[in-house]
Amino acid sequence: MLSVEGLTKRFPGGKGIEDVTFAVRRGEVFGFLGPNGAGKSTTIRHIMGFMKPDRGKVTLLGFDTWKEGAFRKRVGYLPGEIAFLEGMNGIGFLEFLARMQGVDSSAKRARLIERLQFDARTPIRKMSKGMKQKVGIVAAFMHDPELIVLDEPTSGLDPLMQRTFIELVLEEKARGTTFLMSSHSFPEIERTCDRAAIIKDGRIVAVRDIGELQSMQRKRIDLTFERPEDADRFARSEGLQVEARDGNRVSVSVSGSMSELIRAAASCSALSLDPAAQSLEDVFMHFYDRKGEIR
Ligand SMILES: Nc1ncnc2c1ncn2[C@@H]1O[C@H](COP(=O)(O)OP(=O)(O)OP(=O)(O)O)[C@@H](O)[C@H]1O
Predict the structure, then answer these.
(1) Does residue 90's CB lie within 6 angstroms of at least one atom of ligand 1?
(2) Is residue 285 included in any domain, yes or no?
(3) Structural domain of residue 190, as residue ranges?
(4) Residue 110, Cα to own-chain centre: how many angstroms?
């Protein structure tokens, strides 16, 4: 459905993307994961045919996206930063897009607006970042495209709306829609994607199944015990990687199965077991060694 081959773009100043190669299969939800400035938006702009590559090419539904625009009506796109037409309200903007897309998408549009719970009659200049993001999501989904390309779709959405968004993606996926979705948040990608590419400093460092990425991920767990003696006993258990100890608390890091940890925690009367908020750094550090190479 989508193939990105050797895509290279060097910006003045040396940044850009280098030899980016991956393919998205029909019907899958494909994540595009990387820290800020890694090259996600640059790659996506090339995919959508808005930038001319220095080298390489993008083939989407059989079209070279830089040279041919005929793929556009069959694709939905949510840019990282949406440029709206000033002076319109949400509905006006969506109707304008629908005319360009050349399909009657009014019924689907109304359903999406209801799901995302916002007043689309609000003038765009008065909309919050989250509301604008919702208008952009409706625009990307409403014409039932075969592929939906989303650049950081949940930025600006509150947790409840992030959940609604995930439901929408899964419903569309069940109908056979293909997705390419960029994010810098692994948990977000984890809930929806089948596979993901990881990009860092303009280069793809891994393309893996989500299950594989999950099992590679190292998690930090904070445990609290009834008494410091229990914490001591737990910290001496076989096969645990203890990161920190303080009184009746112990932090460990785990990758893969949790069963050993849970067994040891139970036998030492653990009171609570909390996954520590994982920073992006923690996730990415697992994928790179110091030279930035994939392990
Ligand atoms: N038009 C441009 N001219 C010069 N440099 C650019 C241009 N567009 C992007 N860059 C640089 O290229 C790098 C990749 O940017 P890009 O926006 O693709 O990253 P990103 O992965 O989408 O990041 P974020 O998560 O912050 O949106 C950055 O260092 C950025 O400053």
Answers:
(1) no
(2) no
(3) 2-214
(4) 26
Establish whether residue 38 lines the binding site of ligand 1, counting it when its CB lies within 6 angstroms of any ligand atom: yes
* Cβ neighbours of 290 (radius 10 Å): 6
Centre of ligand 1 to C-alpha 202, Å, is 9
Q: Report CA(43)–ligand 1 centroid distance (Å).
A: 9
Tokens at residue 153, please? 């779709």
163 and 271 assigned to the same domain: no
Closest atom of ligand 1 to 44 CA is 18
The whole-angstrom separation of Cα 284 and Cα 292 is 10
Residue 113 has what pLDDT?
96
Pocket test for ligand 1, best of 8, 18, 36, 41 (most atoms within 8 A of CB): 41
283, two tokens: 């996730």
Distances (CA, A) of 214 to 27, 162, 220, 287: 21, 20, 13, 11
User: How many domains would you assign to the chain?
Assistant: 2
The predicted pLDDT at position 277 comes to 61
Report how far ligand 1's centroid is from the alpha carbon of 218 (Å).
Answer: 28
pLDDT at 24: 97
The residue whose CA has the least distance to atom 24 of ligand 1 is 36
Measured distance between the N- and C-terminal CA atoms of the chain, rounded to whole angstroms = 29
Answer yes or no: is 287 within a domain.
no
Who contacts 89 (Cβ-Cβ below 8 Å, separation ≥6)?
A: 120, 121, 122, 123, 124
Q: What is the pLDDT of residues 59-75, one digit of tens each?
A: 999 999 999 988 988 99
CATH assignment at residue 165: 3.40.50.300
Please check whether residues 185 and 222 belong to one and the same domain. no
Q: Which residues of the chain have pLDDT under 70?
A: 277-295
